[in-house]
Amino acid sequence: MENIHSPPERWRLITIDWIDAVGKTTLAKGLSERLSGIYYKTPWKKTKEERNHFDRPNISVQERFNFYSRALKEDAMEISELLKTWKHIICDRFVVSTIIHHKAMDKNVDVGEIEKTGHLPWLIQILLVATKESILDRLLRREELTRFEKDEDLMIKSQWLYIKRAFDLVIDTTRFSIEETLSRTLLLINNPTNYEKLL
Question: Where would I find the Thymidylate kinase-like domain in this sequence (predicted)?
Fold first, then answer.
């Protein structure tokens, strides 16, 4: 497929969300290449050591959320500057996933600090989903199977209808190959009249 040269200006910021092994990074990098855009993975400004500290079991969910909320605020400022380049910014995980994950860990966590962070211009939000079997298979091939137990728990506890409504496009990567997923996403970005929800 050829690169898209004149997609709708208001959809220059593309965020891709959900749990590991649904194809977020593959799609984000593919879109970056096809659109000659900038690939941006959050939390961009935080080191692995910082993330590991706040991912420890003895850190409260609120403390963890506050850390990632601050990180996303820094990312949002950086993204706002990058948007001035008039290039597409393809963001690997963003605000909605952060809220959903922490709400699943503790429904009482206060997420008010982050809610305005996602109010950036020209934004389209994409949610990728996959079956449990597909995710397990992908993690097994990556030798990261132990990571699934936590993510599975989050997936079951999260409110699916709420998640769905928060996104502009939902694609099941079990049903569609990465090339098909990429093509459908490009079709939507190029022509908003092609908008549809895909489960």
Answer: 19-152
